[in-house]
Specification:
By secondary structure, the protein is of the alpha/beta class. Helices cover 27% and strands 25% of the residues. A hairpin with a 4-residue loop joins strand 13 and strand 14 (233-235).
Length: 335
Amino acid sequence: MLDLEVIRMTDNELDRMDHSYDVVVIGGGAAGLNGALMLARSRRTVLVIDGGQPRNAPAEGVHGLLGHDGRPPGQLLARGREEVRRYGGHVVNGRVVSTHQDGADFSVTLQDGRTVRARRMLVATGLVDEFPDIPGLEERWGRDVLHCPYCHGWEVRDRRIGVLATSDRVVHQALLFRQLSEDVTVFLDGLVLDPEPLAELVAREITVVADPVDALEIIDDAIAGVRLDDDIVVPCEVVAVQTRMAARADFLGGIGLLPEEHPMGVGTWVPADNFGRTRVPGVWVAGNVTDVMAQVGASAAAGASAGAQINADLVAEETRAAVAARAGRASALRV
């Protein structure tokens, strides 16, 4: 479990927050902190505002991240905060409630009423997982209810794994978990599959249960099985489910950048180009808020890329201003 005490801060750190920055980074996960690190190392004034609700909070460790595999998420975030501060960046706890354009700059308002200005914004607030209305799913999330075979699969290898359908993408998910266990059951929960994907499941010796699901069967603080609507319990120890993923970005409405439905039908996102630029000039996004499938490593890399792009954008703006100022001085001398 994520130890939030590891990244807790005092009110004095909020008191040291300045009123204006080159860049405000909203979100202090892997994407936000890595973006802030790139900016701080480029001698930019940068503020990270973190709401303290990381998506991977229930996880015991981060996996698939070279050099940090198995590290508790809280430790990874604490280390990232230390690195940002080492280069002069500011990191504070707080929740952003609104953003607005303020001339050429942006204003960012926190829940406590404080407002800071920024020349650029990097939004890396991630997403929220929304669960099917089945008792037990959300309560067991991050323990024996999971979603990603690459994030958690090794830890549940060779166990009885149930895969709960929320769409026809369940076939892909089930086939991935079949690589990790010979005992995989797909619960269609009323979903009707076409013959070809159904044949794929059968060919890989994956059990298919068509009946509606009523709840998870929990015994002694562990999943014992999946209870169907006729009270039959199908034994399993782990349940995989594809959640609906909703981008945490409603506070961007003031600049006309609300989340949109994802083209894959998996939830909402904030669209951007390959460098993280949104349609609002001066605003970048990185991590799960725009790439709903990104793991920690990919999110961190996207944050680093966005940070570099923001710095380059500021350099270009400052260079144009310097050229104009120099031309103005030369013109004045000629007069």
